[in-house]
Here is the input.
Amino acid sequence: MQVFVTGGTGTVGSAVVPELLAAGHTVLALARSDKSAQALTDAGATVLRGQLRDLDVLRAGAARSDGVISLAFGNDYATEEALVRSMAEETAALAALGAELAGSNRPLVAVSGTPWVPGRVATEDDPIPTEGPVGERAKAVTALLALASRGVRSATVRLPRTVHVDGRGGFAGLLTEQARATGTVGYPGDGTQRWPAVHTRDAAVLFRLVLESAPAGSSWHAVADEGDAVRDIAAVIGRRLGLPVGQVPVENFGPFGPIFAMDQPASSVRTRQVLGWRPSHPGLLADLENLQP
Here is the structure.
């Protein structure tokens, strides 16, 4: 099928595009810059120029395609205001894509996050919370799943807080970036909280499987590691960078601080059983060994 992809040059998208092409699909990809357009062309995709806020462009891309994978999201997380703007932009984009696909039974696959469930490992059956710093993203995804009643094969891939490749990406990547800037590998809380993780290339395979066969209104977990303790993650980063490791205030992590401090393990048992997804790439702690000082 021809697949319209947004966010095709991001951490996840840069793996999803070649995964789709290798499986025999064609890709029409949104590009907001010359650099992105060149990268997508080099990968073998057809480029559609525009930005996530260009709703007419999004509708045109969806109209030309047999299915959509929506990965794009703003990359400014420095302030709560910037995060709110990015969530509003994503909400409008998903609504536009859904409206274009209504009644067609074509797939629309979007990104969500694994939920936090106090006291236990989260599963695919758990709802995502619509409160908190990223609650608006959850509301947008809930509305997208409801499009199943309007003839859209809507589905979400719930990504863990760390999606990594070569030691980069996700919450672990943010720890690394802050460590390089401050000279200390700092983590919030006591460090016993657990973060689930997945390698980018394993996540890309799941996006393809969901696009190809997942039923309407379904959610799936791209979780390879159910939960690595944050202090273990920080210890590897500190050793690789040659920096001290220790607890720092939650406020150091801006709007993501409360999320960083949560114990949030998640499983992917049903995803593996139903879709036959089998992660095969290195886990987070092993992948962090690729960090360069």
Remarks:
- Residues 212 and 275 are 10 Å apart (CA to CA).
